[in-house]
Design goal:
Blueprint lengths: L1 H10 L3 H16 L11 H15 L22 H40 L4 H15 L8 H20 L8 H11 L4 H22 L4 H17 L7 H11 L2 H6 L11 H22 L3 H16 L4 H26 L4 H16 L5 H12 L16 H6 L1 H5 L2 E4 L1 H11 L4 E2 L5 H16 L5 H7 L4 E5 L3 H8 L3 E6 L3 E6 L17
Parallel strand pairs: 1-2, 1-3
Antiparallel strand pairs: 3-5, 4-5
């Protein structure tokens, strides 16, 4: 009888299946479109790094793509995610990459939704908060390895929350998950931070509420932190990766030059939804503190602080805060309903309670419907290239061979695209690996694009023989006037310049950069 009941539940559709499919359609097949996932050129070098690993069976330790820091030491710290992207690309091109990325994104929101239902959050409250979360995090919905971190962090937060409510061996699943995570993306450090925050909050909460230290809980979380920290050393670079990430996160240059490390600019709908969640969270923290629930308050305030100084941390903050906010809102709504049973909020609360059962499971119909969407989606609408509104797709197609055999200066994003289109023959000045180039090459890059200082001597020193740049760059106007350069081609997005100042067959003297 129990087996029959389980099979019936497995084959009976649920509202959670509808949520799964509707998010998939709304985010990618509908409003945003698959091309939105390819708005960041970093996807290109991730795919080609994965191709290199699959072909050579070697995880790279030195640069593969540039002539500005050729063969300099490089940490391919997302190597496993790169391999997954490369396999998806080999199987189904860019369509495979975006479908895989979309699955990670929707999976993260479903895990968060189910986490809230487990905390007895009213299903309608959980649904609203999930939709706000999806919107707030959409600024980071790009086909890049950080999507693995978002999914794994949502899973790990649920495991930590579960263990706080009921001590379980499930907690130690975090150790093998750390091994997986450290090879997928550098975001594994947020798990170590979350464990540290849990340990700190639990100690303070124990002291405030009872005045007696819970030694068992203390040693348990210390052991978990030690085990996960040790597990994070199981990567191709060992503890050197941790030192590299620490330098990357503390770099003033990175904070100044990379947009996602800068403070949020509240000028868009998604950041407005983040602002709503932030306000609700701060109110929730107040109620948590009055009830002496220190642990969630400490974690929420920590990530709220970092989300306000870096948009990169907005999803981490939201994933941490939303289950606590949902539980608090449900408690308030339940108390209101008890005192005003005939009111509209009370009716919504009752409806949410009634729907919890059909929201609280996923059947085989959800994954089957996703597969049907993918198979039946018009072939003509799958992406075959990066968005032509952001990348010089037509220009690169017209001059593919010329660019591949040249030392090209272009933007970091377009450098990523050239790597995708022309590697291994293509070498570029800079791409999106800001942790690799650092201020050494980064400041030269900014100097050149703005036409400042000895920009032309820098191009000469690196033997650059073609420049592919956006039409609005100051560099484009300067090259138009320079006798050493000739406009080869232009379109509505880009200009392609070629050297004209050297005699035929006379190479430029290449600058020998300092290799770190």
């Amino acid at each position: 009888m129990d087996l029959w009941r389980s099979l019936r539940r497995l084959f009976t559709p649920s509202l959670c299946d509808c949520l799964l499919v509707s998010q998939f359609l709304w985010l990618f097949a509908g409003i945003y479109g698959w091309q939105a996932l390819l708005a960041d050129g970093d996807t290109g070098w991730h795919i080609r790094t994965g191709d290199f690993i699959l072909a050579s069976k070697i995880i790279p330790r030195r640069d593969l793509f540039s002539f500005s820091l050729s063969h300099a030491p490089w940490y391919a710290w997302e190597w496993l995610a790169d391999v997954i992207f490369a396999l998806l690309h080999k199987t189904w091109g860019l369509a495979g990459v975006v479908v895989g990325s979309a699955t990670l994104i929707v999976g993260t929101s479903i895990v968060l939704f189910r986490h809230m239902l487990w905390k007895n959050v009213n299903s309608l409250v959980a649904l609203i908060l999930t939709l706000l979360t999806v919107s707030a995090c959409s600024i980071h919905y790009l086909a890049r390895p950080h999507l693995f971190s978002l999914l794994l962090f949502a899973v790990c937060q649920w495991i930590l929350d579960y263990d706080r409510e009921q001590t379980s061996r499930v907690l130690w699943v975090l150790v093998p998950l750390t091994v997986l995570w450290v090879n997928l993306h550098g975001g594994f450090v947020v798990l170590l931070a979350a464990i540290g925050l849990l340990m700190t909050g639990s100690l303070v909460e124990t002291w405030v509420n009872a005045g007696v230290l819970n030694r068992h809980a203390l040693f348990r979380y210390i052991g978990l932190a030690a085990a996960c920290s040790a597990a994070s050393l199981l990567n191709p670079y060992g503890f050197q990766l941790h030192l590299h990430i620490a330098g990357y996160l503390s770099s003033d240059w990175i904070r100044e030059a990379v947009d996602e490390f800068q403070a949020p600019r509240f000028r868009s709908e998604n950041l407005f939804h983040y602002e709503l969640l932030l306000i609700a969270t701060l109110v929730t923290v107040g109620t948590q503190l009055t009830r002496r629930r220190i642990t969630p308050a400490v974690s929420i305030l920590f990530w709220a602080h970092f989300s306000l100084i870096s948009t990169r941390h907005v999803p981490i903050f939201v994933i941490t805060a939303v289950p606590v906010v949902g539980a608090e809102l449900s408690r308030i709504l339940g108390a209101w309903s008890a005192h005003r049973p005939g009111s509209f909020p009370a009716l919504l609360y009752a409806l949410g309670k009634d729907l919890t059962g059909v929201f609280g499971r996923i059947s085989l119909w959800g994954p089957a419907a996703l597969l049907a969407v993918v198979l039946l989606y018009p072939a003509s609408r799958w992406p075959r290239d990066f968005p032509e509104t952001k990348f010089p797709t037509a220009m690169v197609t017209r001059h593919k061979q010329e660019l591949a055999s040249s030392r090209v200066f272009t933007s970091d994003q377009w450098g990523d695209y050239l790597i995708y289109k022309n590697w291994p023959s293509q070498k570029i000045f800079i791409d999106g690996r800001s942790d690799f180039y650092g201020p050494q090459v980064g400041r030269l890059y900014l100097q050149i694009i703005n036409g400042q200082g000895n920009w032309e001597q820098v191009l000469n020193g690196y033997a650059v023989d073609k420049v592919l740049c956006p039409r609005e760059w100051p560099l484009a106007a300067l090259l138009m006037l320079s006798p050493g350069w000739r406009l080869l081609d232009k379109d509505r997005l880009s200009c392609l310049f070629v050297r004209s100042g050297r005699r035929k067959g006379e190479p430029a003297k290449a600058l020998q950069p300092h290799v770190r």
